[in-house]
């Protein structure tokens, strides 16, 4: 579970999973700042991190050594859909087998599968501490 706590500055939020802390922030109409990533950047970050981990795990399971790589994720929000544009960039050209392994890992990563399903936000429970 993630807990978000508003800090003193407008729009600055501290996020915690009970062990680690991350700051999120945004800047709108002269308010807010740059203390952390914007919310959509955090969403892109979750997908990018999961993709990197999934590729590493798939290579480990297959006993394959992959060239160094990095994953770029961009979000494209339209009125009718939200799309995540993903690119995996290898330091050197991967073999066709390595490329197929990375492609499969990207398509089947846990966060990619979660984002590929319909999402429903359940009604908030508002309580006093």
Structure description:
By secondary structure, the chain is an alpha+beta fold. The chain starts with a strand and ends in a 14-residue tail after the last helix. The chain has 2 domains: 30 residues, no CATH class; 77 residues, K homology (KH) domain (GMP Synthetase, Chain A, domain 3, 2-Layer Sandwich), CATH 3.30.300. The longest helix is centred in the middle third of the chain and has 24 residues. The mean pLDDT is 94. The chain is built from 3 helices and 7 strands. 33% of the residues lie in helices and 26% in strands. The strands form 3 sheets. The chain has a 3-stranded antiparallel beta sheet with strand order 1-2-3, with no helix packed on it.
User: What integer is the average pLDDT?
Assistant: 94
In CATH terms, the superfamily of the largest domain is K homology (KH) domain
How many distinct folded domains? 2
Kindly report the spatial arrangement of strands forming the biggest sheet. Answer: 1-2-3
- CATH topology title of the largest domain: GMP Synthetase, Chain A, domain 3
State the end-to-end CA separation.
Answer: 18 Å
- Helical content, roughly? 25-40%
Shape: elongated
Order of helices and strands: EEEEEHEEHH
Query: What's the tally of helices?
Result: 3
Q: If you compute it from the alpha carbons, what radius of gyration comes out, rounded to the nearest whole angstrom?
A: 18 Å
